[in-house]
Design brief:
The protein contains 12 helices and 11 strands. α2 packs across α10 (370-391) and α8 (318-354) packs antiparallel against α11. It has 2 domains: 7-54 and 271-409, no CATH class; 61-259, no CATH class. The protein is α+β, with helices and mostly antiparallel strands and 412 residues long. The strands form 2 sheets. The protein has a 9-stranded mixed sheet with strand order 6-7-5-8-4-3-10-1-11. It has a two-stranded antiparallel ribbon with strand order 2-9.
Length: 412
């Protein structure tokens, strides 16, 4: 009975006949795939951490009533720290100032904040609790500190709680007979933010209208009042120049423009430069993988010279031999690549679960999403298969031109 032998049959026969060799070869491909995937995975996590770190640097400058600078005496208006929230102040401005600030060249993002009151709330905190209003749709200083992103924008009756405010997400917190639902919690900031409750502007205005919330000596809070506008400048712009433009857009002495601590600017620049460095490392890993895979393909092809000689003596054409060598290299690359990616995913998951990953990297590692992980896994496999294909081209060409007699005798 005549039986036709196809590529798959030949490859499977080779794997069965040489399990040790093929296991070692697959392990090499797995090692390369694991390195490629791990580099991309760590890069994605690092970029997530870097992105979070940069976003958590707060606003670049703050625009407030000129009286606000009284709170900065001793440090000076140019020596404030990272601006995440404004200092509690009864000095206010109207939110229509935002339109003027938003039109200034170099301004990228703007968001208002309103200080409502500082209260002693029994059962909530032993320390005084600050109540602030924010605009959830434009806020870029508070929400980056969330332990977990909100499923939906902050809705009426929902608040964001600082780290030291007790209560889990979805639990209730009472503020002067007003019941709010905790929609999100913040990571520790080691600042007054940890004992602050943030709510939407509408809720803040409604709470401020409640008797006993604001001290009798404090000016009444009216809808449209804000304490400050937090500003993020366009990358590459000079904060001092943008600040000067904002001052010029208002009548003299109508607003104060305050910058964050000058030492934070080089830190921010260094953090933003990390992804480029990590990308370079990933490219080096891929380039270093090529000669190793080429060596593996050449070794496999050389070991199978006798089999190739027999096939050619039975009439196999050059293109068939060429395809067989390429196909076997691709099969081993795919098997090893899949194994390497699976082991890497399991390893990273275990390390992250136990906290060892954060400890080893000395950063708060942010696990990439399932979709991103699948894309990185697919990319790693494609890269390994592509490199395997290219690296096996010359061995495949050499084998296809072997003289059957020399190949069988091992003289190829």
């Amino acid at each position: 009975m005549k039986q036709q032998m196809n590529y798959l049959t030949f490859i499977m026969a080779g794997i069965r006949n040489k399990p040790g060799r093929n296991l070692a070869t697959a392990f090499c491909f797995a090692f390369i795939a694991a390195n490629i995937f791990s580099g991309q995975y760590l890069l994605a996590g690092a970029i997530g951490s870097v992105g979070q770190g940069v976003s958590r640097m707060g606003a670049d400058i703050i625009v407030a009533p000129p009286e606000y600078t009284v709170f900065l005496r001793g440090a000076g208006p140019d020596n404030t720290f990272a601006i995440v929230k404004t200092l509690p102040s009864d000095w206010r401005m109207k939110n229509n100032s935002m339109d003027r600030i938003g039109k200034v060249q170099g301004v990228s993002l703007i968001s208002p904040q309103l200080y409502v009151s500082t209260m002693n709330i029994s059962g909530v905190s032993s320390s005084p609790v600050d109540i602030f209003g924010i605009d959830p749709l434009t806020d870029f200083t508070i929400q980056p500190w969330l332990q977990k992103p909100l499923d939906n924008p902050l809705r009426p009756g929902e608040v964001i709680a600082g780290h030291l405010i007790p209560g889990d997400v979805s639990s209730k917190v009472e503020v002067s007979n007003h019941i709010y639902t905790i929609a999100g919690r913040l990571d520790p900031t080691q600042s007054a933010v940890d004992t602050t409750i943030f709510m939407s502007m509408d809720d803040a205005y409604a709470l401020a209208a409640t008797k006993g919330i604001a001290p009798p000596s404090a000016p009444r809070i009216s809808p449209g009042d804000i304490n400050a506008v937090l500003v993020r400048i366009t990358p590459g712009e000079d904060p001092d120049v943008v600040g000067a433009r904002i001052r010029r857009s208002f009548p003299p002495s109508q607003v104060a423009v305050i910058g964050r601590h000058f030492t934070l600017d080089p830190v921010s620049q260094d953090i933003q430069g990390l992804p480029g460095l990590l990308n370079s490392i990933s490219v080096i890993i891929v380039v270093a993988a090529f000669p190793l895979i080429a060596l593996i393909a050449a070794m496999v092809a050389h070991e199978r010279q006798r089999e190739i000689g027999l096939l050619k003596s039975m009439g196999a054409k050059r293109n068939v031999i060429f395809g067989l060598v390429i196909a076997e290299s691709l099969s081993l690359a795919a098997i090893g690549g899949i194994a390497g990616v699976i082991v890497s995913v399991i390893t990273f998951t275990l390390l992250n679960t136990t906290g060892m990953l954060n400890s080893a990297l000395q950063v708060s590692f942010r696990m990439p999403s399932a979709v991103d992980t699948c894309l990185m896994a697919g990319t790693a496999l494609l890269v390994v298969i592509a490199i395997g294909s290219i690296a096996s081209l010359y061995p495949a060409y050499t084998c296809s031109r072997l003289n059957p007699y020399d190949a069988i005798r091992g003289n190829g």
